């Protein structure tokens, strides 16, 4: 146990992770005499491609009292109802992962079991017909959900696409207004105490910054958590083989869609993230199956607008830090681990890292039991998201390239094996609580890949065929009618939150 009280917090690294952390700590910690410093260098670039989010970003902004319209305008943001998956099951296929449940549970039985029952009789039913945000997305429409929806069918979430660099600047202004001190410069020397704790950081200009708690937001390199403390890393590339990415911004092409698009390619997948003023694009691929030159050509050939930046290339190792809290260093963001942005979890993992820090903040000194619980939660969270991402690759029917044949044949974690087997045999969605992705997200993937269950919960038979079909038709028509009424996504932005032309 480290008995010294925390009076000086030092955050290493800016970008999205650093400034989200600084803003949240400045807002939430009411400790007399507490000083929060953030060290960053303008010469060290940030990854800055995490521009798509999941609905938890709204609760984060709300917790800081951030006005949504101001945020949308300052970050050139658009809205996100979910993710479209093109060519993942097979070439020419498409399905949508919404931020919502499907239909309404009937007779206390999860909704998807009733659809499985109908499929068992030969009826062709599309689960997408029972998702309001999916139907909105198909028509490029957007509406904010009612705070007290009249029906469970109208209850859904939304997230954002935004300019990550502008978001970091927005939060920097927020944090500095609340007393966070920004220090410019590269860290040249790290001094440790006899017990191994980090004590003082010295910048190249000679400025020394001491603290009792250090937050590592230095990105992939993990300056403190790994380069200094040698914490260790779990490499998951044998399950998630993509280890390279190339990103480029392009002019707007077509409509500002209210969703992220991911398109499976021969050695990975390409993202499309529409903002108000441009589109973010990238290709995540496996270097064992694709050269950098071919990856760049694949990306540029797949754009729907002219590129406006030079392509940026990244290398990464999918996996997690063995511990995110080691001695007096707490890792948040990429320094704590990296799971490819297939389901837009990068920024949400920053949020959950901040939440763990706040929940176990060492007001009276660092306690080994607090550290152990934080690290356990960290491992559990990463492993559950890991399994969900692996499913995207393992479930494919594609055999048109060596990469996809590898994904079909690769070994997967036992936890995912069990989940897939339980659903395949009886339609049961096993949840290892807590999980970042809820039951119907897993149902989306199983149905999107046509991994339908062989059986269903027989308690669904308590509803007659006629009654079940009548209720499903009523749900379907209600959703279709409601989805045809809102404004287009572009028009909604123009009326309510259009940003000034960028500088």
Automatic annotation (TrEMBL):
This is Tryptophan halogenase family protein. It holds the Pfam family Trp_halogenase. It comes from Gilvimarinus gilvus. Coiled coil: none annotated. It comes from the Bacteria.
């Amino acid at each position: 146990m480290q008995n010294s009280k925390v009076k000086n917090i030092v955050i290493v690294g800016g970008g999205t992770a650093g400034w989200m952390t600084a803003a949240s700590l400045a807002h939430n910690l009411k400790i007399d005499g507490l000083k929060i410093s953030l060290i960053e260098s303008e010469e060290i670039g940030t990854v800055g491609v995490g521009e798509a989010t999941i609905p938890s970003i709204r609760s984060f902004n709300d917790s800081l009292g951030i006005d949504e319209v101001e945020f949308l305008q300052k970050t050139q943001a658009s809205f996100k109802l979910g993710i479209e998956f093109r060519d993942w099951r097979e070439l020419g296929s498409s399905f949508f992962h919404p931020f919502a449940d499907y239909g309404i549970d009937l007779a206390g039985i999860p909704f998807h079991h009733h659809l499985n029952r109908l499929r068992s009789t030969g009826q062709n039913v599309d689960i997408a017909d029972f998702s309001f945000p999916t139907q909105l997305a198909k028509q490029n429409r957007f509406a904010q959900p009612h705070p007290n929806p009249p029906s469970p069918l109208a209850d859904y979430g939304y997230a954002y696409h935004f300019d990550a660099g502008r978001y970091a600047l927005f939060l920097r202004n927020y944090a500095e207004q609340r007393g966070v001190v920004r220090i410019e410069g590269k860290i040249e020397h790290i001094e440790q105490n006899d017990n191994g704790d980090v004590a003082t950081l010295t910048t190249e200009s000679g400025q020394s910054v001491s603290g009792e708690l250090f937050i590592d937001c230095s990105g992939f390199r993990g300056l403190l958590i790994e380069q200094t403390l040698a914490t260790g890393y779990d490499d998951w590339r044998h399950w998630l083989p993509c280890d390279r990415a190339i990103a480029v911004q392009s002019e707007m092409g077509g409509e500002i869609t209210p969703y992220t698009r991911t398109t499976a390619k021969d050695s990975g997948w390409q993202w499309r993230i529409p903002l108000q003023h441009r589109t973010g694009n990238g290709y995540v691929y496996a270097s064992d199956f694709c050269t950098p030159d071919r990856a760049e050509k694949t990306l540029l050939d797949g754009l729907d607008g002219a590129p406006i930046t030079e392509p940026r290339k990244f290398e990464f190792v999918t996996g997690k830090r063995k511990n995110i809290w080691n001695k007096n260093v707490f890792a948040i963001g990429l320094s704590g681990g990296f799971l490819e942005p297939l389901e837009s979890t990068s920024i949400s993992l920053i949020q959950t890292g901040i939440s763990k820090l706040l929940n176990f903040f060492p007001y009276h000194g660092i306690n080994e039991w607090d550290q152990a619980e934080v690290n356990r939660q960290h491992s559990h969270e990463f492993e559950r998201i890991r399994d969900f991402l692996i499913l995207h690759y393992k479930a494919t029917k594609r055999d048109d390239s060596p990469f996809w044949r590898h994904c079909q044949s690769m070994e997967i974690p036992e936890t995912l094996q069990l989940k897939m087997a339980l659903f395949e045999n009886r339609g049961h969605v096993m949840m290892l609580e807590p999980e970042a992705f809820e039951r119907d997200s897993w149902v989306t993937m199983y149905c999107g890949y046509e991994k339908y269950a062989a059986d269903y919960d027989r308690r669904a038979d308590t509803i007659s065929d006629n009654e079940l079909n009548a209720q499903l038709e009523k749900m379907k028509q209600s959703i279709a009618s409601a989805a045809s009424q809102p404004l287009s996504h572009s028009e909604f932005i123009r009326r309510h939150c259009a940003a000034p032309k960028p500088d």
